[in-house]
Design goal:
Layout: H1 7-16, H2 19-48, H3 52-55, H4 59-69, H5 85-89, H6 94-113, H7 119-139, H8 161-173, H9 178-181
C-alpha cells in the first residue's frame, strides 16, 4: 500500500522542477563548487608562498639576508627550534596574513623590475628596506616576534642582568616593543648613521 504524498510536498516539487528553478539550482551548485575550488586553490597558493623555500627562491634573498640569518640564533641554537622567513615576516592570523601578502606584492614587483638584483643594489637600498620593516613591526607591536616570545612566560631570573632589566622596563612601560631593541637580531644591520635612537 502506497502512502499518499501530502499536497504541500507535491506543490513544492512542482515548483522545484520548473525549468527556471532547475537553472537556479545548477547555478547555485556551480557557484558552490567554483567557490570551493577557488578557496582551495587560493589557500594552497598562500601556503606555498609562505615557506622558506619560496622566500629564498630568488637569489636576492638567498644570497643576502638568508646567508646572514644562518649565522644567528634564530637559525641554529641549542634547543633546535628554528625560525624561518615567514615566522618573522608573515603574521599567523588570516586577516593580517592577507594584508601582509598584498604588501609583499611590492617586493615581487621589485624582483621583476630588478630593483635589488645585485649585491650592490641590495646594499644601496638596505637601510630603506630595513627601516620600512622595522616601522611595520613597531606598528603591529612586533606581532610576529610574539608568536614565539611572550613577556608573560619569560623567566627574568635566568636572563642576564641587563636583559632582565630591559625586558621588565619594556613590560612595565607598555610603550616598547621587541623591535625597538632587537634590530639586527636575524640580519646584519645597515649603516645606522642618521637612524633615530641608535
Amino acid at each position: 500500500m502506497k502512502l499518499p504524498i501530502p499536497n504541500f510536498l507535491k506543490r513544492y516539487w512542482q515548483l522545484l522542477s520548473r525549468p527556471a528553478a532547475i537553472a537556479l539550482w545548477l547555478i547555485l551548485a556551480f557557484g558552490f563548487t567554483a567557490g570551493i575550488v577557488f578557496w582551495g586553490g587560493f589557500n594552497t597558493l598562500m601556503e606555498a608562498s609562505n615557506t622558506e623555500a619560496f622566500c629564498t627562491g630568488c637569489h636576492e634573498m638567498k644570497d643576502n639576508v638568508f646567508e646572514e640569518m644562518k649565522t644567528t640564533i634564530h637559525y641554529s641554537n641549542r634547543s633546535g627550534v628554528r625560525a624561518s622567513c615567514p615566522d618573522c615576516h608573515v603574521p599567523h592570523e588570516w586577516t593580517h596574513k592577507i594584508v601582509r601578502k598584498v604588501q609583499a606584492s611590492k617586493e615581487v614587483w621589485g624582483k621583476l623590475t630588478g630593483y635589488i638584483d645585485t649585491r650592490a643594489k641590495f646594499l644601496e637600498h638596505r637601510k630603506n628596506m630595513a627601516e620600512r620593516e622595522w616601522a611595520r613591526m613597531k606598528a603591529n607591536d612586533s606581532r610576529e616576534c610574539r608568536n614565539c616570545h611572550n613577556f608573560d612566560y619569560m623567566d627574568f631570573s635566568v636572563q642576564s642582568k641587563r636583559a632582565a632589566q630591559m625586558h621588565s622596563t619594556a613590560l612595565a612601560s607598555g610603550k616598547m616593543t621587541c623591535i625597538d631593541c632587537h634590530k639586527g637580531i636575524a640580519h646584519h644591520l645597515p649603516d645606522m648613521s642618521g637612524v633615530a635612537n641608535w
